[in-house]
Amino acid sequence: MEKATLTVKGMSCDHCVRAIKDNIGKLDGVKQVEVHLQEGKVDVAFDSQRVSLGKITETIEDQGYDVA
Predict the structure, then answer these.
(1) Report field, pTM of the whole predicted structure over 0.70
(2) Other CB atoms within 10 Å distance of the CB of residue 22
Protein backbone atom coordinates (compact mmCIF):
# COMPACT_ATOMS: atom_id res chain seq x y z
CA MET A 1 0.00 0.00 0.00
CA GLU A 2 1.35 3.37 -1.02
CA LYS A 3 0.25 6.77 0.16
CA ALA A 4 0.61 10.11 -1.60
CA THR A 5 -0.42 13.69 -1.02
CA LEU A 6 -1.27 15.69 -4.13
CA THR A 7 -1.58 19.47 -4.33
CA VAL A 8 -4.71 20.25 -6.34
CA LYS A 9 -5.52 23.72 -7.64
CA GLY A 10 -9.01 24.82 -8.62
CA MET A 11 -11.06 23.21 -5.85
CA SER A 12 -13.48 25.77 -4.45
CA CYS A 13 -16.52 24.02 -2.99
CA ASP A 14 -18.00 20.87 -1.54
CA HIS A 15 -19.02 19.75 -5.04
CA CYS A 16 -15.32 19.73 -6.02
CA VAL A 17 -14.47 17.64 -2.97
CA ARG A 18 -17.21 15.14 -3.71
CA ALA A 19 -16.38 14.92 -7.43
CA ILE A 20 -12.69 14.24 -6.82
CA LYS A 21 -13.36 11.79 -4.02
CA ASP A 22 -15.98 9.87 -6.01
CA ASN A 23 -13.96 9.67 -9.24
CA ILE A 24 -10.69 8.63 -7.63
CA GLY A 25 -12.53 6.22 -5.36
CA LYS A 26 -13.87 4.39 -8.43
CA LEU A 27 -10.38 3.52 -9.66
CA ASP A 28 -9.42 -0.11 -9.13
CA GLY A 29 -6.76 -0.26 -6.44
CA VAL A 30 -7.60 2.98 -4.62
CA LYS A 31 -8.22 2.19 -0.97
CA GLN A 32 -8.78 5.60 0.63
CA VAL A 33 -9.21 9.20 -0.49
CA GLU A 34 -9.29 12.27 1.72
CA VAL A 35 -9.80 15.69 0.17
CA HIS A 36 -8.78 18.77 2.15
CA LEU A 37 -10.47 21.74 0.48
CA GLN A 38 -8.91 24.47 2.63
CA GLU A 39 -5.36 23.17 2.07
CA GLY A 40 -5.91 22.22 -1.57
CA LYS A 41 -4.59 18.72 -0.87
CA VAL A 42 -5.71 15.20 -1.67
CA ASP A 43 -4.41 12.28 0.35
CA VAL A 44 -4.72 8.93 -1.37
CA ALA A 45 -3.83 5.39 -0.34
CA PHE A 46 -3.54 2.94 -3.22
CA ASP A 47 -2.20 -0.40 -4.40
CA SER A 48 0.52 0.49 -6.92
CA GLN A 49 0.18 -2.96 -8.50
CA ARG A 50 -3.34 -2.06 -9.60
CA VAL A 51 -3.28 1.70 -10.20
CA SER A 52 -0.50 4.21 -10.75
CA LEU A 53 -0.11 7.64 -9.23
CA GLY A 54 -0.09 8.90 -12.81
CA LYS A 55 -3.57 7.47 -13.41
CA ILE A 56 -4.83 9.07 -10.21
CA THR A 57 -3.36 12.42 -11.27
CA GLU A 58 -4.85 12.06 -14.74
CA THR A 59 -8.28 11.35 -13.26
CA ILE A 60 -8.16 14.58 -11.24
CA GLU A 61 -6.92 16.59 -14.22
CA ASP A 62 -9.65 15.13 -16.45
CA GLN A 63 -12.16 16.80 -14.12
CA GLY A 64 -10.61 20.21 -14.82
CA TYR A 65 -8.31 20.60 -11.82
CA ASP A 66 -4.55 21.15 -11.86
CA VAL A 67 -2.28 18.83 -9.95
CA ALA A 68 1.00 20.46 -8.94
Answers:
(1) yes
(2) 11
